[in-house]
Amino acid sequence: xxxxxxxxxxxxxVLRLLGCMCRRPALVGDVDLAALTTLPSGLGATLLIDQRQxxxxxxxxxxxxxxxxxxxxxxxxxxxVYGAKAFSCDAPxxxxxxxxxxxxxxxxxxxxxxxxxxxxxxxxxxxxxxxLRYRMIYSGQVGCAEVDCRPFVPAMRDHALTWLAPIxxxxxxxxxxxxxxxxQSRETAGERFIDLKCIAIExxxxxxxxxxxxxxxxxxxxxxxxxxxxxxHADFQLSPKKAGSLLGDVGISGERVTKGYKxxxxxxxxxxxxxxxxxxxxxxxxDGVSRCEHCSSTNAMxxxx
Length: 305
Known about the structure:
Blueprint lengths: L1 E4 L2 H14 L3 E4 L4 H4 L9 E4 L6 H9 L7 E3 L2 E3 L5 E5 L11 E4 L12 H27 L13 H8 L6 H20 L5 H13 L6 E3 H14 L8 H10 L5 E3 L2 E5 L2 H13 L13 H12 L1
Parallel strand pairs: 1-6, 1-7, 2-3, 3-6
Antiparallel strand pairs: 4-5, 8-10, 9-10
Helix pairs in contact: 1-4, 7-8, 7-9, 7-10, 8-9, 10-11
């Protein structure tokens, strides 16, 4: 996914240039769900979309088609629009799930150059030949490429692999893409400070590290979460029911007793909470300090990976 953010005339020019350089480009100025169902299966076109007000159904379909192994179905149709996509945007996507790169185009102080049909045709003939040759030489290498994605947050690792694997013999371009992805990864990592699932796991982990504590209640988790959020200047009001729901979403379940829901800290539960804390990269485990035997075993597993 590539999001082109800026004035419409500038974005339109970039889309036309991409049409000269991309594999199987399809420049479209208006698209609906019915049109997507007519695309041939397996085409793998690069959709270059110059339409800023896409319908919700079209947007969901385009975003859901970013993995070749999962098909998109609408009614009695199976829609195959897998492939790269570039969108014209007024602003970068607000939805955190919409992974992609954003390119910001500032308004040009002078009139933009005109891309004539002859120039576009010449550029297309030149770049398409080079692109085909690149695919013939590097297709196998890209298919089995090994990219170290550990520096990125887990949610971005497949995303980073998709962008970095095809860049074989261009270290400057690769470094440029790494810098953009790293910045996006840091922004995503910062969201853990107020991500409610991470906060719930962090609160549960705190009870694991309190001396002599063998159990805790969901209401206590809600209170601890509230304190953590207040300390991070986040304005949330959490009920015990919401805290229990968040714990249940990550697989930490309790039993109903007179005082509420109780989580007993058996060895298995402590291990589970530590593994969740490491998997979700909650803030309190980032220092690498071992505060109990379960911290030590979790840190050892991470270092082996």
